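Protocol step 4 of 5: obtain the predicted structure for the target chain.
Materials: sequence only (see below). No template structures provided, no constraints applied. The aim of this step is simply to have a reference model before the mutagenesis design in step 5. Sequence pasted as it appears in the construct record:
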Amino acid sequence: MTQLGWAELQFGVTTVFHFFFVPVTIGLSFLIAIMETIYVRTRNPVYRDLAKFWGHMFLINFAVGVVTGLLQEFQFGLDWATYSKFVGAVFGAPLAVEALAAFFLESTFIGAWAFGWDRLSARAHAVAIWLVALGTSLSAFWILTANSWMQEPVGYAIRDGRAVMTSLGDVLTNPQLWVEFPHTELAAILTGSFFMLAISAYQILRKKNQEAFARSFKISTIAAAITSVLVIVVGDAQAAHLVKAQPMKLAAAEALWNTSSKHAPWSIVAIIDAKNHTNAFQVQIPEMLTILAYKRLSGSVEGINQVQAQMVHKFGPGNYIPPVAVTFYSFRIMVFSGMTMLALAYYALYLLKRNRFTQKAWFLKLLTGAIALPYLANSAGWIMTEVGRQPWVVYGLQLTAQGVSPKASVPATDIELSLLGFVVFYAAMAYAAIHLWKKQIARGLDPDPDQHQHESPRDDLFLETNSLSRP
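Step 4 output (structure tokens):
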């Protein structure tokens, strides 16, 4: 491959792997905060024990997410120096706020929460995990502020060949941000819900602390039922925004080669012949794309060929068509995974209302396997978002090929070697995370066998007891 190809591959590998951990971190923090709040209100120690169990899972995930995020920043400097120079004056503000405010808030209160079980009152400890949840969401907000600017640049001027921010207000009110951030945030809570739901189902199956995990099953089922609907609603708004913001991405996501003047169909599946700009085979629902885009029965949706001609006229000669098959099928994988989670969540809710979920072993096994669904949806959604924007790294301003580091400074062999190192390191991190998760799951709510459990008496200020094992 070329230097550009290796740089793109490395960006894809590092980002997808990092994104395995980010949504779970955001989602679990909110669910743990709910459990601790229930504990404060009810004083039922089961919720405290559950918060500790899921807190261990959260901390493992958080640690791996931080390390992989640092490596992702490293590859920006290695592979994308020209891009970093071009966007630095815009990205500086949101990324600085993310690091200095949101991440510090998150990290500080993670420390207070992790080590404060027997030092803080129950209420103060619950406040700490809520602030952790707030910090994770703020981190996501500022990072998505930067990403949204790449998708739809606003509030900037080009000076000396670089983009310079002229209005922070415009950047923060970017229409792309306010469809992208809610969708990502809700998807993260849905991811955490299915993570918790799958492991709770597994523990119920093996009859390990069954009564306690039935409670986390209930909390995660309700959260999954709510967020699975909201993700679809907000995702639909995000897709509709593409009609004006990025018509090429929308056309590629639907493999729509030519403009449909009034009634655009929606393709369920298609065999795409990108070379000849046609689909060899497709199964379509008439008018559905128009309905999804405009919420009415008539409306024009531009095709790939027509948008290509417009972009050649505006930006000069070049191929502005993204990889259509990748964009098309990644979008459908995301949608299929999301709809499957919706169905599973509402069937779980149905069984929960009738108190029959512990009797359905086949469904609990299905839920255990369904832990893969949010990871599949998140990865496919990110691929569709980033690949569908190609060949732009900053839409309409900088081509991806223009953002790569100079070949003389960073030859392709350097990227190959660093990618190999990343893959080996990521494999080790994945093994460590899975090993620790399995160990925690096997233990359940039981105390550490190497320690003995000690609970201090609770005083009038509701000082938290230490049900974490300690000497």
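Step 4 remarks: The CA atoms of residues 1 and 412 lie 8 Å apart. The chain has two domains: 3-246+322-443, 247-321.
Proceed to step 5.
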